[in-house]
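seq as requested:
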Amino acid sequence: MMELAIEEALQRGVAAHKEGKLQEAERLYLAILHSQPTHPDANHNLGLLAVSVNKAAAALPLFKTALEANPTIEQFWLSYIDALITEQQFEHAKQVLEQARTQGVTVEKLNTLEKQLTPSAKVNEPKLAAHNKSLSLSQKRKKLSERKKRKKAAKQNLKASNPSQEQLNNLLELYKNGRLKDAEKLALSITHEFPKHQFAWKVLGAVLKQTGRVIDSLAAMQKSVDLTPQDAEAHSNLGATLKELGRSDEAEASYSQAIALNPDFAEAHYNLGNTLHEVGRLDEAEASLNQAIALKPDYAKAHYNLGVTLQEVGRLDEAEASYTQAIALKPDYVEAHSNLGATLQELGRLDEAAVSYNQAIALKPDYAEALQNLSIVQSYMNNLEIEIVSLQNILQIDADNYGLRAGVSLAICKFLEGDFEDSKKHLLAATKILEKTSPKFKNQKVYWKYLSNILSWHGENYFNPCNLKTDKTLFVIGESHSLVSHHLRVQSSGSIMLCEAKLIKGCKQWHLGNSNKNQYKHQFESIFCALPKHSSVLLAIGEIDCRLDSGIIKHKNKFPEKEIEEIISNTVKNYLNYIVNNNSDYQHTIIIQGVPCPNIDTGTYSENEVTQLIEVINTFNCELKVQSKERGFGFLDTHQLTNKGDGTSNGFWHLDDIHLSPEGMLEAWRRYTSGQSYE
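struct tokens:
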């Protein structure tokens, strides 16, 4: 939003000036100069006031400041030269007059002033003036007449350099009342008639930007800055336009210039912080946002965006405090409620997160993002039925933006319920928008392909020999790898077990092994601790997922000084210790699932990348196997099952690039039960 406080004060001052309310006009002009000492119009108009009361000497520095701030205004030149002549500074007046010629000031007006540069005879008769200390009546009348002429000329000069007060008031009211089409029409008219009057350009730029014509607004914003380069708000408005156009470096420069002109300009600090955040300079962004808050403690948006920055760098407790403060200042701040929910979710405080999401939805029932996040929380809280309702609502509200994610999530929910047919229907619906989605939905595309393949297999093999009466349940807790086991029947220790998947999306071993509370621990513990004592549990929680851009490899690339073996060993140790500690009261039979060999498209990665990935997965599985057996856990060695001998997939058991096929899982269990060697 454009700041118009100074412009309002200026227009009020001009109105009072024209009406002869000189004290009121002076008060308003001085108030503007207190905020912006070099404001050109305020300096010029205050100078005109001084001239009108026969104080041309006092007007000179004011006219000079106005001219230095904006030399493109013709009237500033004329007023300054006229005051110099009045004060008999003829040589200086000549110099300024010649400068004015180079600036394109109207020749006729300059010629009129030039004629006044020859001093009168009386002026050069000091003796006469000395002897005649008191003015004659005719001289007094002449002096009064000259004063009236100057006063009249000052009013005419003011009128000549500005639109009418009625025009400016109308323009301001139209803009404030949201009548943007009418405001644009009037602004265009004023800028055409008075092309060097900045206020109309400023409003025009704001109107064009608000009506979506950002590129068109740029020229008007730039004109506003060019006409009044000392106007901090004009620079800030230009920065906002540049930022929206993706010209971040230029936007940063504009905001910085605004701050240089007015260090107490809270909005400029705020906008600079947002720009720095967008380009990833988070420490600087934090500093700018904190400065905005220091200058304006009730600045809800600044508190909110500080929260966003802090959340991004993982300082969740501080982010929570910032969002909470934003809400305290603006209780209906929908986005703050939603982001507070996301922060609480990351902290593992899922009940509180659900409350925040619900508050956001209460304020904005069609807030699809909050509904999506609420469905995720419900997933982590194992509220499958409520999750399904939330996902169905999302599809009704915003299928274009959230249809793929919601559709795939619904398909997974129905799959976990054992309703394979309904699961297929939701996948088919998601297919319609699959190709239109942005890269940020890559994970949903992976889940879509993976689940499609699983459902296809179940459709063909539902009545296979494994479809036997089961003696007990094998609970499979994990991320996406757990889905392939769902509804499979496997044999172990003389029993046939029906696999029941318990999905924790995105969960990695380091999520469970670190010391911080998080949503993954919350969900794991709510699942693990709710199982009947002495249950059979397969943990299909991976760390690296056969990927080059996450987990172990990502951590190693971030901290190259660390040895990869140490990273892997500590990750595995902390994870398994967490399982041991949680299992002490339940005595579940624990089996750990390994990570399959990578099914790599070697044309996608460099030779070095492939070599690094193979080495990490080999080392990881070896460490996981050794430490699992040390703790008395079983180990489902899917790595050896899929190994071609060189650490890559043998091509027999993969369903896609990452996951095992159902046949692969059945074969892994057959070998595990029989004790068959993989060697």
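The chain is about 65% helix and 5% strand.
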